[in-house]
User: What shape does this take?
Amino acid sequence: MRISLGDVCLWFDVSGPSVIPQGDTTVERPVLVAVHGGPGLDHMTVKSALEPLAADFQVLYFDLRGHGRSDRSSAESWNMRTWADDLRRLCDALGLRKPVVLGSSFGGDVALTYAALFPDHPGGVILANTTGGHWGGPRVIEAFGRVGGPEAAAIIERIYAGDAGDLQAEFNRVCYPLYSATPGWAGESRQFLARMIRNPDVAAHYSSHEVSSFDPWSLTGAVRCPVLVLAGEDDPVCPLPVVEELASQLPAGTTRLVRLPGARHTIFLDRPDLAFPAVKTFVAQIRESHPAS
Assistant: This one.
């Protein structure tokens, strides 16, 4: 499905019903808005991972502008502030009041920016396997080396150094299989990549024009909604020390950090026994605070 926000049309989909029968009446289920990874990827980065949540929630997936099946728009709009504003406007257009937003990986950067720019809008935000837009640098290189050895560390180091060569094939072969500790992921990751609609122009533009000009961490003091931070203890993409630092920047009274032992970047695949209950508990607490939302 597609919805117009005026200057852009976004593609979205849902898993799970919004209203279910219960005895002689009906009950509205919570809606969880999922923001996908990237940049330059699409909602398939989160759909299979979050599918089990459809048993308890209606999960809303969408493609950010410039991504997947949404309008490409123009390069000057491929930035964190615009994506955060699109998220707000999408929720408004769909009548979602005080939404609970789950941002995964790069989607966590968008979710954090949204929560900071529009502090009264979200009911709560879940930052999953993300550093919120703050790049780990040497700690990421070290983490990839720890789980993948010298070859993986060397590829990540070349990427951070701005190596002019095309490293995508090497990254997909060596580093992407390290995203999960779950057996069989190495083979599954190839299929996972093949399913996505990719826009490398977004990734290139964001890396060259946006990363250095805007840091979502500069806005963390403006966040007022409850925040759940989910971190894989062995995540090479978003090393735990960086995630812990992010959590420390957020309001202590409304922020909860959950560390997931044995999980890498695919936290919902690696530790579903810990990640899903944490999400369900958090959403239940939000519902208690905003029963009409």
